[in-house]
Each structure stands twice: as structure tokens, then as C-alpha cells.
Amino acid sequence: MELKTLANAFGPSGYENPVRALIRREAEKRCDDVSVDRMGNLICRKPGRDRAKPAVAVAAHMDEIGFIITGYTEDGLLRFRPIGGIDPRVAVSKWVAIGEDALPGVIGAPPIHLQKAEDRGQVMKFTKLFIDIGAKDQKEAEKLVPLGTYAVFDTPYMEFGEGYVAAKALDDRIGCFNLLKLLEDEYEGDLICAFVTQEEVGLRGSQTAAFALEAEIAVVLEATAANDLGDVEERFRVCTPGEGVCVSFMDRASIADKALFSAMLKLAGEQGIPAQVKRGVTGGNDAASFQRTGRGMRTVVLSVPCRYIHSANNVAKWTDIRAQADLARAFLKSL
Fold first, then answer.
1. How far apart are CA 1 and CA 109, in angstroms?
2. What pairing do the DSSP bridges indicate for beta strands 191-196 and 275-277?
3. CA gap 217, 241 in Å, rounded
């Protein structure tokens, strides 16, 4: 399956159904044991050739940031709230696709020349924004878009420049893309691939999945904010697109197992896989769930550097995407 297909798919937190259906069809070609739990996590179990080897869970989240419709105005505009961490400044004037039928809409705000002076000096909150679907009145809007309908940014996948890709949901369809690639190979130990739900709203899917996996090690495939452009001081730059997969020693939700962290960097060096150390203690991801649930797992996170994360256009580099898959595969083969 192409990354383009996954990135363009509709799948905000809480409604990953379309993405899961796409992934399941591909996973079942590579794995005989595929199941979905009550939280909607897609779990693929692939027995290894040597059951004495440690079982490894590799995880990526299917969901993307998005919006949910909460009300209407008398003139047919939609009130909404964000799903996941979205800065209102990146939302204004963006196209959105509403529901699985992808009803088009535009996120709007009062024009600058009609705003009050105090409004112009601060970030406009989501309560001041609306989605325009071209409805003539509230009655038509209610008919077209029931309360609780989901929406996502409507940004087509595009490759540009020197090996860069831009899309709405590279966080974390990149991880899902590479997780499917891992399922193509055979390994000595048991491999459990977990495509999890609702990461963007508090790691909810992985909290459930981790209870049932019974793995010794968890490797999380993610995307992480690069923060490498503009007048950002060097010490605040988290990682750099084009310098390889990013190995994290710590974030705001978990601390990597030191032996796994060192093993990943050593493997990358030995096999010529581009890799870098994540230089900032930022963000959080599903590693926290795997590390803390049940008897716990030794965890490490491999992330692809991503510019403009949690916006309508995420940007990553293909060399880093391939490096994530190569390093994860090399690690599984090394056990």
C-alpha cells in the first residue's frame, strides 16, 4: 500500500474505521492472526521461528487530529471543537472534509477589519471559529451534518522538492506504512504489530492494547516535531529532516530503556542506516502505555522528523521514512 493512500484516508481519533479497513486488508495478506479489540486496535500476531527469542510489539497509531461538529448558527455555519492538539492559528481558512462522504467545508473567522482591537492582539479561540459548508440556513446545515460528525483537514498528499512529502496525516500514517512493511518479513522471535487508536487524545487505544500483548519489548514508530526552521535557536531544534530516523531517550510521557536506546544507535552505525538522537524532551506517545501497563515492557521510540506537525500540512523526507523501517527491521533481525 502506498503512503499516499494511508495519508489521504479519513481517520480522526475515535473514528479510525476507514483507515483500519485499509490496513486490515493489507495485513491479512501478510499475517494469519489479525484481530480487532473493543477499542478498535488492529492487532497482528506473527509467530517467530524460535519461541525462546523475546517477543516484540511494534506499534503505530492510526488516528489523526481532526474536528467534531458541536452546533450550528442560524445562518447555516457549523460550530466545532478540535480533536487532539491543534493550534487555532493553523486552522483558519483551511479546507476540511466532513464525514466519510467528505462534504467540503472551509474553516472561517471574522475578517481582520471587523475584529475588535483586543481580538487582533491575541490568538482567536475555536469558539470564535466556524465551518462554512455553503448551507443557506440552520435547517439545511442540520440535515447535511448531524451533531457529532467528524471532520479532518482536506489536504491532498504531495511530493515536492528534494525528496520531501507533504500530507495532512503523516503523524502517524508514516508509522502505519512502515509497520505494514515489517509484516512482510519473517523473524526469529514473535512479532506483534499493533495499529492503535486514539493516540492524539490521550494514548487511549494503546492503554487497552498493551494489556493483551504480552511482549517483552515495545518499539513505537512515530512522527515527531522537528522545530528546525526559522530563527529557532540551535538548542531548541529537536531534530532535522534528512538526517535520519530519530531515536528518543526521553519525552514527556516515557523514558527509553537505556539498553534498547544504545542498541538502536549501534545498529544504525553498523548497518549504515541514517539516524539521529532526538535532542528535545518534547511530546509524548504510545510508549508510555506499553511501559506502564501490566508488567510493563522495555520501550524505545523511533520517530520520523516532521515539520508543521498537527497542522493541515505535515512535511517529512523520504530518506527518514525509509530509515525508520530499516532500523526497526534491523533490530528485529538482530534479536
1. 38
2. unpaired
3. 27
Contact 103, 73 (CB under 8 A): no
H or E segment at 225? Answer: strand 217-225
Residue 114: pLDDT over 60: no
**Cis ω on the peptide bond leading into residue 326 (within 30° of 0)?**
no
What is the bridge-based pairing of β-strands 103-108 and 164-167? unpaired
Q: Using one digit for the tens of pLDDT, what is the confidence trace for 74-102?
A: 999 999 999 999 999 999 999 999 998 99
CB-side exposure of 38: number of CA atoms within 13 Å?
Answer: 4
Instruction: Determine how many CB atoms are found less than 10 A away from the CB of residue 192.
Output: 21
Break the chain into its structural domains and give their ranges: 3-64+168-334, 67-153
Residue 115 pLDDT class (50, 70, 90 cuts): low
Extract the C-alpha cell encoding 5: 493512500
Instruction: Return the CATH superfamily for domain 3-64+168-334.
Output: Zn peptidases (3.40.630.10)
Q: How many residues does the chain have?
A: 335
DSSP string, 62-76: --B-EEEEEEE-TTS
- CA dist., res. 209 & res. 198, Å (int): 12
Report the alpha-carbon distance of residue 23 to residue 32 in Å, rounded: 14
For the stretch 218-249, pLDDT in tens is 999 999 999 877 777 777 788 899 999 999 99
CA distance 201 to 43: 20
Query: Which residue from 75, 78, 109 is spatially nearest to 92, judged by alpha carbons?
Result: 109
Task: For domain 67-153, give its CATH number from 1.10.1610.10, 1.10.3720.10, 2.40.30.40, 3.40.980.10.
Answer: 2.40.30.40
Give residue for cell 509497520: 179
| Mean pLDDT within 20-24 | 98
